[in-house]
């Protein structure tokens, strides 16, 4: 029985697991949304929520405590200048885990973990990519139609009959 046994081992040593959680947390704060396995997403959530609660204090001590885990100075700067003011009113639940289904190849259950207040930023980026993709598809379709017209013109040229 696993009474009072908290956390997942993720088939890693303790130092490897700590490095993994540090890196996943840094990536989450940098990109606002990451795609990983469900177990890693859930473990990252339990790792980063207390970190964000500590960061809400927004003093020197809090910055030093966060820097123990997040080693990228630009990410820490962004955390305290942009993310903390946005989550300051929220009493917890800063992240959301969305299940995606199984990965092809090894059938691992995949998930997206994202910061709750930042899904509009990600949706805006996705909308921009969608517009680019549609424009590219339209240009490709027009070039294909042009090729078809040229092919028709070649076929319509009359040929001389032999007598």
Parts with pLDDT < 50 across at least 5 consecutive residues:
none
The CATH homologous superfamily of the domain at 14-116 corresponds to Ribosomal protein L17
Number of strands: 3
- Tell me the Rg in angstroms: 26 Å
Measured between the Cα atoms of the first and last residue, the distance is 97 Å
Oligomer classification: single chain
Largest sheet: 3 strands, antiparallel
CATH topology of the domain at 14-116: 50s Ribosomal Protein L17, Chain: A
Give the overall shape, derived from the CA principal axes.
Answer: elongated
Q: Would you kindly provide a written description of the structure presented here, covering whatever features stand out?
A:
The chain is α+β, with helices and mostly antiparallel strands. The chain has a domain of about 100 residues: 50s Ribosomal Protein L17, Chain: A. Helices cover about 60% and strands about 10% of the residues. The protein contains five helices and three strands; from the N terminus they run αβαααββα. Strands 1-3-2 form a three-stranded antiparallel beta sheet, with helices on one face. Helix 2 packs antiparallel against helix 3. It is elongated, with a radius of gyration of 26 Å.
Question: SSE layout and pairings?
Answer:
Blueprint: H1 14-31, E1 33-37, H2 38-55, H3 60-67, H4 73-87, E2 95-102, E3 109-115, H5 119-156
Antiparallel strand pairs: 1-3, 2-3
Keywords:
163 residues, 5 helices, alpha+beta, three-stranded antiparallel sheet, single chain, 50s Ribosomal Protein L17, Chain: A
């Amino acid at each position: 029985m696993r009474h009072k046994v908290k956390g997942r081992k993720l088939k890693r040593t303790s130092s490897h697991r700590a490095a993994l959680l540090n890196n996943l947390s840094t990536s989450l704060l940098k990109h606002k949304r990451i795609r990983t396995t469900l177990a890693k997403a859930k473990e990252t959530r339990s790792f980063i929520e207390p970190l964000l609660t500590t960061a809400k204090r927004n003093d020197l001590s809090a910055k030093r405590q966060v820097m123990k885990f997040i080693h990228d100075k630009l990410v820490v700067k962004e955390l305290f200048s942009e993310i903390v003011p946005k989550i300051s009113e929220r009493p917890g639940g800063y992240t959301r885990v969305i299940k995606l289904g199984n990965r092809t190849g090894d059938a691992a259950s995949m998930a997206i973990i994202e910061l709750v207040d930042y899904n509009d930023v990600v949706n805006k980026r996705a909308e921009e990519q969608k517009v680019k993709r549609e424009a590219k598809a339209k240009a490709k379709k027009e070039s294909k139609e042009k090729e078809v017209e040229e092919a028709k013109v070649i076929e319509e040229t009359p040929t001389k009959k032999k007598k």
